[in-house]
Amino acid sequence: MNRTPPPVGWHLHPQLAEDTHPVAHFPLCDLQLMDDANHPWLILVPRVENAVEWTDLDESQQAALTREIGRACRVLQAVFQPHKLNVAALGNLVPQLHVHVIARFREDIAWPRPVWGTATAQPYSPEELVRRIERLRAALA
C-alpha cells in the first residue's frame, strides 16, 4: 500500500496510540484497529498535521479520505459480514481528525445503541490481536 510520508511534526495522538494497533498505511491515512474485542472497529487517521475537522483537509484529501473510508467499510463487510456499519468522525475527546468504522451486529453488546459508553472495552488477547490483524491485512491485499 502506497504511503505518503507524514508531514514533519505529524504524529498519532497519544490517546489513539494507546487505544489502537496499526493495521495498514493507506495513501492518506493510517488504518488502526481499536483495542476492543466487543466490536470489529477500525479507525482511519489522516496524516495531515493539525487536522481536526474534515474541512481542514483540501478537496483532494477529502476525496482520498472518502475512498479510504469506503475501503475500510468493504474490508469489514468481507471479513465479518455485519448487519450494519457505523461510520463517524466525532473527535469530542481526541481532537485529531479520525474516522471510526465499526461493524455492528444485532446481537452485539451495544445493539442498537452507539458503542460509546455502553460496555467496558475488552482488550484483545495477544493471540486474538495477531489473528484479527492478519485477517484484516489479508482482506486488504
UniProtKB/TrEMBL annotation:
E.C. designation(s): 2.1.1.-
GO biological process entries: methylation
One function term, GO molecular function aspect: methyltransferase activity
Occurrences of domain HIT (ranges): 42-111
Enzyme class, spelled out: transferase
UniProt keyword list: Methyltransferase, Transferase
InterPro entries hit by this protein: HIT-like, HIT-like_sf, HIT_Hint
Pfam families assigned to the protein according to its UniProt record, in alphabetical order: HIT
Protein name (Swiss-Prot/TrEMBL): HIT family protein
Biological source species: Lysobacter yangpyeongensis
